[in-house]
Amino acid sequence: MIELKDVNFKYKNGKEVLKNINLQISEGEFVSIIGKNGSGKSTLAKLISGLEKPKKGTVLIDELDTKKKANFQELRKKVGIVFQNPENQILFNNVYDDIAFAINNLKLNDIEIRIQQALEKVDMKEFIKSNTYELSLGQKQRVTIAGVLAINSKYIIFDESTTMLDSYGKETFYKILRTLKEQGYTIIYITNAIDEILMADRIVLIKKGEIISQFKKEDILENIDVLKSNSIEIPYLVNFVEKLNINGIKVELEKWTKEELIEKVIEVYKK
Ligand code: ADP
After folding, report:
1. Cα dihedral sign for 137, 44, 25, 258?
2. Nearest 5°: phi and psi at 36?
3. Which ligand 1 atom minimizes the distance to the CA of 35?
4. Mean pLDDT of all residues in 69-84
5. Distance from the alpha carbon of residue 22 to the mean position of ligand 1, in angstroms
6. CA 264 to CA 135: how far, in whole Å?
7. pTM score of the predicted model
8. Which terminus of the chain is more solvent-facing, meaning fewer CB atoms within 10 Å of its CB: N or C?
9. CA 224 – ligand 1 centroid, Å
């Protein structure tokens, strides 16, 4: 479990960027973190991954305090992070070397098997010997995900990881994400692409460094006002379903498949 207790944080010489953050994320959960630019989402990701330490309060990952130096190595294994631009995250010219680097650094065994299995999970097995600079951005992003999977991190943070991908890259990425969720990984998903929050179990809204609201995905219709009043865009499907509901057509959120929605639209037109 990830636990943030009364966490405050500021950068050197800066103002407070995170204030009184209390957040728990259970194993296997998929939590989406949203908020305007500059609200503190990436900083929160850095605190969870141990890249930054809280000025006040504690961040515990499976009860390991991120402030304790002795926990550093173990924390690097537990929490992986995938950033926006894979080109900044890939350090080597070769896929194998790039993934092997972190495995070696953490002194883990079975390098070959780890790399093969991780690349298989992101559908990139045949690229094991490829040059990283010859890959598309989407493929590079999959290599960075494989890097995290090769360490066997159970907590994975995605920080606006789809921003630079084209539509094919995004679709492939979402497929991988769904598989990771099914396999029980804990996912912390920071996004500005509002439609993506519907993949999550829970949505956490941050404003000016504070958590101002959090709710389960299935309760999103009841939370439209809080999103609107904080100038957060409403996901397309949520808008759509809200309009159906206003028209007296009840759609249960768990059943939002394309097919069901098409049927509902047909009902509206028949009216
Ligand atoms: P978000 O991810 O929601 O866009 P960030 O966590 O990146 O927000 O930033 C929160 C605040 O912290 C912003 O005011 C930003 O300018 C500031 N900030 C981010 N990184 C640094 C840094 N390395 N040094 C100083 N200030 C920073």
Report:
1. negative
2. -65, 165
3. 3
4. 94
5. 19
6. 42
7. 0.92
8. C
9. 27
Asked if residues 23 and 205 have their Cβ atoms less than 8 Å apart, the reply is no
DSSP summary character for residue 40: S
Which atom of ligand 1 lies nearest, measured to the CA of 206?
3
Distance from the CA of 40 to the center of ligand 1, in angstroms?
Answer: 6
pLDDT at 271: 65
**Torsion angle (degrees, nearest 10) of CA 113, 118, 124, 126:** 0
User: What CA–CA distances, in Å, run from 227 to 24, 37, 166?
Assistant: 21, 15, 27
- In the reported structure, the alpha carbon of residue 271 is separated from the centroid of ligand 1 by a whole-number distance in angstroms of 50
Residue 257 pLDDT exceeds 70:
no
Pairwise CA distance, residues 67 & 41, whole Å = 20
Please give the biggest Cα pair distance in the chain: 66
For ligand 1, which residues put their CB under 6 angstroms from it?
11, 14, 17, 35, 37-43
41, two tokens = 């989402």
Out of 42, 191, 206, 230, give the residue to mutate to test ligand 1, the one with the largest number of ligand atoms within 8 Å of its CB.
Answer: 42
Cα(214)–Cα(192) distance, rounded to whole angstroms?
16
The reported pLDDT for the residue numbered 167 is 92
pLDDT at residue 38 tops 90: yes
Place of tokens 């850095």: 46
Q: How many residues does the chain have?
A: 271
Give residue-wise pLDDT tens across range 190-214.
999 998 998 999 999 999 999 999 9
Q: Domain 2-231 is in which class?
A: alpha beta
Mean pLDDT of 15-24: 96
Establish how many alpha carbons lie within 13 A of residue 177's alpha carbon, considering only the half-sphere containing its beta carbon.
Answer: 24
CATH 3.40.50.300 residue window(s) in the chain:
2-231
